[in-house]
């Protein structure tokens, strides 16, 4: 069974219009995709194209205004109250800024323990489970006692991932999860995410504006523009034969290895 099936998804926001009137604005329009367990869909597109709104609808942080979202075969858009809270365990999110998922006033261990409580793990098991989770993300057990500000950005992101894994999700949404990290740390976190995916069969929705990150991570790619998907297909095909001019522009913007930042291919060369 597919981990994620999104069909005709729409997200509409209200925003101030003229005078006291409110306008409705469609940030996501008729978006459909599927993610199989153990696979990654890379979602790219310019700022404001609706990528995060898709993620927020998937997580049910915003209410979709249309379409359906199936997670493990369950229609998420119809869940309410306790059912929705229970179901949230199946989906977790890792953000660009780890402080969006970590409480700065709690140690790394307590941040993870909070998620363990939500997952129904009993208190006596917290220490051993926390140690296990830290180990899975490549951190020593002693990190449990450190506060988020006492560790590096990459280590903080590892703690965020451990916290996300604590509830045993099927789907991980990574929203620009490595964008703020140095290139070498970024590669380590991407490799960690791949290892965890191989071990647990996690489905990833991997949002990034960086096409070289997506080339490394994604099995399939969807390109968004103005709230719609303008290109969608297996990653190898999209990179080898991009069909939409906008995709060609995004690929052309990837710096060539060894060419430094100055030499960029033109959209013509990508074609
Ligand atoms: N809560 C909100 N209320 C009103 N408009 C919103 C809200 N959240 C997002 N938008 C608008 O919806 C559109 C899509 O935003 P979204 O954050 O989904 O795009 P994005 O592709 O993730 O952008 P970025 O790469 O900058 O994060 C933008 O025009 C944004 O201004």
Which class do the helix and strand fractions yield? alpha/beta
Enumerate the distinct ligands.
Answer: adenosine-5'-triphosphate
* Biggest pleated-sheet summary: 6 strands, mixed
DSSP summary, beta strand count = 10
| Poorly predicted sequence stretches spanning 5 or more consecutive residues | none
Major sheet: arrangement of strands:
6-7-8-3-9-10
Helix count equals 10
Q: Give the terminus-to-terminus CA distance.
A: 36 Å
Radius of gyration: 19 Å
Q: Fraction of residues in helices?
A: 25-40%
Tell me, what's the shape? globular
Give the integer mean of the pLDDT values. Answer: 91
Q: How much of the residues is beta strand, in percent?
A: 25-35%
Order of helices and strands: EEEHEEHEHHHEHEHEEHHH
Pfam family, one: oligo_HPY
Organism: Paractinoplanes pyxinae
Keywords: ATP-binding, Nucleotide-binding, Transport
Family: Belongs to the ABC transporter superfamily.
Short description:
Pfam families: ABC_tran (PF00005), oligo_HPY (PF08352). This protein is α/β, with parallel strands linked by helices and 271 residues long.
Word description of this protein:
The protein is an alpha/beta fold and 271 residues long. It starts with a strand and ends with a helix. A hairpin with a 5-residue loop joins strand 1 and strand 2. The model has no long low-confidence stretch (mean pLDDT 91). The radius of gyration is 19 Å and the shape is globular. It is 35% helix and 25% strand. The chain has a domain of 77 residues. Helix 3 crosses helix 4 and helix 4 crosses helix 5. The strands form two sheets. A six-stranded mixed beta sheet has the order 6-7-8-3-9-10, sandwiched between helices. Adenosine-5'-triphosphate binds next to strand 1, strand 2 and helix 1. Pfam families: ABC_tran, oligo_HPY.
